[in-house]
Amino acid sequence: MSSSSSSSDPTTTSTTITTTTTTNNKLVICIGDIHGYITKLQNIWSNLQSSTNPHEFLTATIIFLGDYCDRGPTTRDVIDFLISLPSKYPNQTHVFLAGNHDFAFAAFVGVLPPAAGGEGFRDGWREYEESEEREGWFKGEGYEEMHLQGRRWAGKITVRVNAVKGTEYQGSIYDAAPTFESYGVPHGSADLIKAVPDSHKKFLADLVWVHEEDDIFVNTEDGVKCCKLIAVHAGLEKGVDVKQQLQMLKARDTRVPKVPQLSGRMNVWEIPEELRSSPTIIVSGHHGKLHVEGLRLIIDEGGGYAHKPVAAIVLPSMKIIRDTDVSAK
């Protein structure tokens, strides 16, 4: 296997796992963050189709790792494309994970699962209220019952430059202005709620927070390995019971004002220690880089930048496919 991580990045330690001689033709394709770039999505889909066995592609499990919106100019077209896949490729299995950007989009248009126990979302604002003025949280129509991330997503940030990335914010902390514009409304307008089609709202409402697969085979230098796969947008937290994390993610517990498994950074980078005793692949997007280290797969080479490629990884081969590969032309 190859690794594209920087030497300054944290890495997981190697995992000892048992080699199996079983062959398995199940193709699993994990596609990184799209961030509103329809041409990149179309190209990477074409490249995946042309670089894999036709029958295997048509029966593959395709896992989209989240963040379909924001930054790029064509979020509406991206979601139309994704919605069309089940009818165009009925023998494929399509998994659409929620990214932190999609979670926030869903929060703004009011399609998040309701908070357990009917608690509402206002209590979640308090933990982060010191950021409200700087981030310019949304205060328009309907904000009173809105999840924190919806208010941040549609807010108008008061600083111009993202100092970490060296880029200018596009409307909000989430760079959500292009998403609003793709639906024909200005950033921060409550009119977006009416402008988003019901089919798109259903897509956002149905996004899963975690996906698990058993008996996934991967090629390594030591042979073919049979693994469990857990796909989650950012990763699983270290030092937190994995069963509890998975339970919360499967329940889509929206009482949490900021879901670390969808939006965390260093705390979700590594494979949790308790999963090292059995071969478990953790695959994520979110981190704005391509990092393949042992069974920890981070597939987000594009990071929402116009000049960087969208990437996918194909299992069991571990081959990386990009939208910029020549076969797109």
UniProtKB/TrEMBL annotation:
Start and end residues of each Calcineurin-like phosphoesterase domain: 28-129
SUPFAM superfamilies per UniProt: Metallo-dependent phosphatases
Gene3D superfamilies named among the record's database cross-references: 3.60.21.10
Descriptive protein name: Tyrosine-protein phosphatase rlph2
InterPro entries: Calcineurin-like_PHP, Metallo-depent_PP-like, Ser/Thr-sp_prot-phosphatase
Pfam family for this entry, one: Metallophos
Transmembrane intervals: none
Source organism superkingdom: Eukaryota
Source lineage: Eukaryota, Viridiplantae, Streptophyta, Embryophyta, Tracheophyta
Organism: Stylosanthes scabra
